[in-house]
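B., you asked whether I could sanity-check this one before it goes into the benchmark set. Here's the sequence:
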Amino acid sequence: MKFNLLLCFLLLLSGIVFGQDCPPNIGFENGTLSGWKCYAGTIKNGVVNMPETGPINGRHTLMPNTSPQQLDPYGGFPVNSPNGSNYTLRLGNDQAGAEMESVSYDFKIPSNRYSITYYYAVVMNNPNHPPDEQPRFSAKVEDVTGGPATQVYRSSLDCVNHDFVASSGLTGFQTTGSGNNQIQYKDWSPVSLTLIGYAGRTLRFTFTTNDCTHQAHFGYAYLDFEENCGTSLIKGNNYCEGTNEVVLTAPSGFDSYAWYTDNFTTQVGTNSTLRLNPIPADGTQYQLIVTPPKGLGCTDTMYASISGLAQPFKLNIAQPEILACKADGADITAPAITAGSSADMAYQYYADPDGQIYVSDPKRISTSGTYYIRGTNTVYGCTDIKPIKVTLADGPTIEWTPPLAVCQPATIDLTKAVTDAKGATISYYTDQIATRPLLNPTAIDKTGIYYIKATSALNCATIIPVSVIVNQLPIVSPKTVASCPPISLTRAVSDGDYTGNTFQFFYDAACTLPVKDPDNLTDPAQSGTYYYRGVNSSCPGSPSTVTVTVYKVPSFTVTDPSPVTYPATINLADTRPDLSDAAYTYWYDATASQKQITDYRAVGQSGTYYIKATGISGSCTLIQPVHVTVNAPPEADLVAANTFTPNGDGVNDFFNPTTTGVLSINYLKIFNRYGKQVYETKQALTPWDGKLNGQLQPVGTYYWIFNCFDIYRKKTITRSGPITIIR
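And here's what the prediction gave me:
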């Protein structure tokens, strides 16, 4: 009966202390996003389109804890939370596209004093857009119960709401890169929240990331929850049998700590831990005020009550000093290290004696030093922290010489590369972690990276990569090339060859007479058969042939024609010689490819023209310029006397003007002094005999008007002047 009463008391106590667990899977520890709502969409031009989608891998990505730990490619910090949990959520990715992601979790607060901690890390491009167009990360906690409040709330939710917009000088952020490639990142940070007066209320955690709205820059975050929720985040207030000292440990990540007793009347400490020796009486109350970095959380008050339990408890470090190899690292989570400890223990691993700095990868300690293991009884909450010293030994030093490259069919003896193993055992492998033995280390016949492993007496190993080059002999085949000069033999045989081989050319099959200038064959007399071979890193292969035909290029010169005056023309065919082995064409452009001259026999405009000769055999071409000068004629005009004597004596009886320039006549009109027209011609100038309708016109002064079109200058000309009839 007494045993049953004791058991009931212990179960009740256990329920009081540890029964208020974290909400199911809030820390992703079952390896899924069960219990979480997932959203994904876009943000463009200030418009958010982000429906609930369920988990999308790559946008709502669970990152399992691995050893060695995976590092963020930009910030270089571990992608897994420092609290040692099994999974972390990466929200978003580094693929820019104006993407937006969000997750939310709703849960009901079980008591009027409830504490919870989450961790986050952020990576964002900073392209210096306006704030509403920048990448960002936000965290929000809100009461979504609805209806009238029935509690008097004593703690605010606002101070744990964060909205980080990429910009210079963000608190707690570091910068890498520059310009539009600048990255701002924040390593893992904890946020602890003590909720007072929220029993029965439903709270919602919402976390959101988005890229820049221009689809060119990204933003993403990592998220995890501490699997330790309940009335207080202070560890160590419960102690079991055999304990001589109580150490109260506060959550990490705050700027300042202030410990009080006697209901805040006496301050007893300012560190993250408070050591109590001798142990105070059961029920002694301690209060702790924690202040976070500015703008990164809430000033919070936490409480702890000293409670002694009549239960055995022992944290035993069976191996207080361990020796391991640096290449492998030390695993301080091995069960043998804590063998002999009490049952129902959970372990955490730290780099400091106060249990504030988590070891990110306790399965692979890579630096010698003293570390700390905290053991906590998961039933009663009794806890202790003890040191373990880790010493990492280097692997043996190997002295070696890189093997020289060889040509097939020769092989390489890798065992001769090691010149001094310092007493270590040597073995050879094909993979960098030395799991696949090399079967023929004395006769390697294939190029590649191989690995030499030296193992010391302490079983520490050094593995070095060794590059082995066994050059293959190039294989070439017969080639044929027929082209206009210059012909490059290298280009002819290497077209489509992507091996990186070089080539050698010879006149003879024995490859003793090298071709002096194989990439500049210009004379048809150089047509014939040549011999060539490929060379791979000084390893020549067997020769083959390349048959070459060098086509003849037409040869001619042009003679610039003598200048002419418009409307005379130039026959371009008269400027070049006749060729029996080529055909001519005539062009306006220097490449002789864009605009051909159709009437090359009557070129009437000054300029440079081009004559192209195309060989009948091989279509080789030669282009020569010819310079044509066609001078302008005089401007169109009328040349006329100012008097004439139409008296029939045969002397100066007609008004007979002439013209200059190249023109077409529109009309020649003559008027008397009263403005009456007495004469007109519209074609060739016909002499005026001084008559109108067969009647001689009176002596006096008349006026002529001449109108024509200047064909060369393409304009209309009008001239006028007096003409006097004298008898």
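One thing to flag: Residues 1-20 have pLDDT under 50 and may be disordered. Otherwise nothing jumped out at me.
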